[in-house]
Design brief:
The chain is mainly alpha-helical. The protein contains six helices and two strands, in the order H-H-H-E-E-H-H-H. A two-stranded antiparallel ribbon has the order 1-2. The protein is elongated, with a radius of gyration of 17 Å. The protein starts with a helix and ends with a helix.
Length: about 140
């Protein structure tokens, strides 16, 4: 399993917004410069994050984007699922009807357990946790 560029860049976008949380709305062009991600790509990523209720936008000269909740209340799972969709090691975990062997499959139980472990880890890490880790990296 591999998190796509969408998932990684969305996390970086959200971390940038989290780092400026108390400063009010931030322009995507500023996020683009700070994170070295193209403005066009950020414009695509912000849409599912907004739909998921993780960010809100403000129009006007002092507009831009802000987190919809404080950094300690937004988890990595919410971010990843907003842009990647449901997380699962195998498709049948989220949609048992796609496999005729679902009821008798031993391996799907193992994949389901691993998926739950991933959920638990992603639910346990907030944007605030990431900010604190980032602060520890900065000399």
């Amino acid at each position: 399993m591999k998190i796509s560029t969408r998932g990684r860049y969305s996390t970086r976008l959200m971390l940038e917004l989290a780092s400026k949380y108390s400063q009010g709305p931030i322009f995507l062009k500023d996020v683009s410069q700070a994170q070295d991600i193209s403005l066009k790509y950020l414009s695509q990523l912000i849409i599912p994050l907004k739909i998921a209720g993780l960010v809100k936008s403000t129009r006007g000269a002092h507009g831009g984007y802000t987190l919809s909740r404080s950094p300690e209340k937004i988890t990595l799972r919410e971010i990843v699922e907003a842009v990647e969709g449901p997380i699962a090691m195998v498709e049948c975990i989220n949609d048992p009807h796609i496999c005729s062997r679902y009821r008798h499959c031993v391996s799907k139980d193992i994949w389901a357990e691993i998926t739950q472990d991933i959920y638990q880890k992603l639910d346990a890490v907030t944007l605030q946790d990431c900010l604190e880790r980032q602060d520890n990296l900065t000399p």
